[in-house]
Amino acid sequence: MDHVYKLSSLQAARGLAALMVVAFHSLFISAKYVESKNLLPEIFSFGQTGVDLFFVISGFVMIIAFRNKFGKKGEIVNFLKGRFFRIYPTYWIYFLAVFLVFQIKPEMMNGSQGGNVDLTTSLLLLPASTLPLLMVAWSLIHEVWFYLVFAVILLLPSKWVLSAFSFWLFAIICASSFTTTPDNPYLRVMTHAFSLEFIFGALAGIAYLKLSKRPTSSPLAAALMALAGLGAITFALRAGAVDGSDVIQSISLERAFAVGGGYTLLLLASALQESHNRLKVFGFLKSVGDMSYSLYLSHILTLSVCGRVWLSLGYTGSGAWGAMVFWATSYSAVLLVAYLSYRLIETPLLALTTSYRKPKLVKTLPTAEGDT
User: Fold this and answer.
1) Of 244, 263, 318, 323, which residue is most buried, by most CB within 10 angstroms?
2) How many domains does the chain fold into?
3) Average confidence (pLDDT) per 10 residues, the chain, 372 residues
4) Cα separation of 110 and 251, whole Å?
5) Are 236 and 255 in contact (CB under 8 A)?
6) How many other C-beta atoms are found inside a 10 Å radius of the C-beta of residue 174?
7) What angle is formed at CA 244 by the lines to CA 267 and CA 235, rounded to 5 degrees?
8) Taking a C-beta distance cutoff of 8 angstroms, is the pair 308, 315 a contact?
């Protein structure tokens, strides 16, 4: 039965989430560097929910990967150590690269907030009133918070885990319903409705552990689950639950339940189908999932460089055909840089830190980072 815990669908979902975020950020690059702004489809704006999907995957994976660790002595230290080495070393390579650019040409970084950056909180992935120096790292700040809470839950015996997540769920709903967005950045992260999506993923993981053990299950049930998930996401799209508001400050409960809940149902349905050998995963998405952390960290930098080169070559007025060439080249560069980063930076760093991590944390399941 061990194969039911090694799910390619989770890795493929992570690849899809990363590509969705790339699509979303392409809209900003297009507006800044490419004259044919209407070439990219409007649906790319929904790509911002790739971060929601990352958070759901993260909760799901944490439950599956640590299913036998709850309540066991010493596991919290192993868990936190493993999470630290999974996230920070690779992130610090990118932080250093951006920091060097920031020292040489500060006007190139964080222009939307006047170059105002807290370097200490950016380095440590701590909440702050400004965006991190590497702007996409804001989602990693949420992941760090999720892991800290999960570490506390890891202290509990298995029979209390569901109750702990249910209490956390209730607390976030109350905070979102009856309080305003806190000014304090720590409280903002702690009460943010993004936590609901991690919780949904964890609850789906708990459900998966029970349902996957059944010798047979109806494919119709999984199909209905997937349809319900698609319906929820479609509702969110049509109802405007995903709009242009600042998600870093807060998101609505409607978005958390419709988008996060929709992705949760889709993920659970896919995992159950795969566990019963009814689902084959696209190799491309799985490969992108393997390098999704590097892709997430590098893609805006790569797209920005492509945009600046495009401007320097004087091709901004080349029309729709020129824009098509730009995006074909830029997306190829994004994937190439992510692959090289994964092979030459991320993988070697993971290997280098293996002696500091508990071996069972590696290869149990694809690790989750948000990987936003």
Assistant:
1) 263
2) 1
3) 70 97 93 74 91 98 95 92 96 96 78 73 96 95 98 96 98 95 96 98 96 78 94 94 88 96 97 84 91 97 93 75 89 98 96 69 42 45
4) 22
5) yes
6) 11
7) 45
8) no
